[in-house]
Amino acid sequence: TLPDPSLCVTATDFEKVAKDVLSEKSWVYVSSSAASGLSMKANIDDWSLINFRPRILRSVDKMDTRKSILGSTSQFPFFVSAMGTLGSSHPGAEPLLVRGATRKGLNTMISTASTKTLEEIMDAHIDEQRLLKNQSPSKLSFQLYVPVDRSKAKSLIQRVKKAGFQSLWVTVDTSTLGKRTADRYLQAQENLAGPKETVLKAGTGEVNSENSYAPAFGGRQVPGSVDAGLTWEDLDWISKEWNGPLVLKGIQSVEDVKMAVELGVQGILLSNHGGRQIHSAPSSLMTLLEIRTYYPEAFDKLEVFVDGGLRDGADVLKALCLGATAVGVGRPYYYALAAYGAEGVERCTDILAEEVEITMKMLGVSSLDQLRPEMINTSRLENE
Ligand code: FNR
């Protein structure tokens, strides 16, 4: 039997519960990272190297944690980042994640590499909205891996549009799949052991092929799934085809931020894919700081999002002080879904939301637009 969900009091507590629930294959898939895990660890560690300069005796009895994201009001300054094959986390997969998130008013980014079709996932969101009498401000966005076949890419974008996703987030850090060490070890063991029947403790891990031409579960790539030939020129037709809020997911350099601004996209997500792609990637915080130093104008020209290693409401606020519009959270939601289904997703959201609010109060701000870079001391990172 699982521990009662109330025993999870931080967003990281779901991990140990999930480890007991998940099959080895699913555990390896979610917890693995490129090479030695350097960048995954740096994502987490770097947030703890900066700290607040709290202010006291400011009226904080009325709190507002809402944030405008790409033209819509979000209940929270964080959202669930895209994760593939959530059927490997829980049999309820993406629709169950979405139900939990919608109940809490939380925005969710749906991966191209989902186990259910994008229409089924949207249906769960709409159904939950109906049950809540349309009181939930929650929105779904779609993360796009661009299929090599352009006609498939275009029809996928049209389906996303027709289904009613709010924004399109094109992943640009996946010209190939990163070398995920833990996946390789497991694969090598399985190859040596020969064919055997795999019993998945937590549902199927197959990518829905109707949805996507995207990387398969377990880090093996389906030929023709992700376009290694993708360039900035492709963003032109993607942008025309989509004709709505567009965000580039996986920007890691100041130069590329400049190019994104030139292109005129609405947003960028600074991300190293949770440390799963290039080995020795900068942590998401390092990228954010570089942009502050070398191209601060960016924050006035587009919305800057960040993901990677954010595990506490305080981390969320640190990113916002430094200019982020909102942040994405990945693995904690995979683990929460694996452990407790929709209830876990709700609980994880409550935990982060409460931490955001108590940290705001002790920082001396009552709304998120009062957050400023001066409220953060980054000297420990800069002196290194
Ligand atoms: C991911 N990520 C990801 N990104 C993407 O663009 N498309 C995808 O299908 C996936 N799939 C995926 C699966 C799993 C199991 C993980 C852990 C991550 C990356 C994800 O969107 C996000 O960038 C990171 O997860 C953020 O880091 P944290 O919060 O997990 O540290």
From TrEMBL:
Family (UniProt): Belongs to the FMN-dependent alpha-hydroxy acid dehydrogenase family.
Cofactors that this protein relies on: FMN
Annotated residues for binding of glyoxylate: Y29, Y145, R180, H273, R276
Protein name as annotated: FMN hydroxy acid dehydrogenase domain-containing protein
Every FMN hydroxy acid dehydrogenase domain range: 3-381
Origin: domain of life: Eukaryota
Keyword entries, A-Z: Flavoprotein, FMN, Oxidoreductase
SUPFAM superfamilies for this protein: FMN-linked oxidoreductases
Active site: H273 (proton acceptor)
One Gene Ontology term of the molecular function aspect: FMN binding
Positions that bind FMN: 82-84, 111, 143, 171, 249, 271, 307-311, 330-331
PANTHER family found in the cross-reference section: CYTOCHROME B2, MITOCHONDRIAL-RELATED, S -2-HYDROXY-ACID OXIDASE-RELATED
Protein species of origin: Penicillium arizonense
A Pfam family per the record: FMN_dh
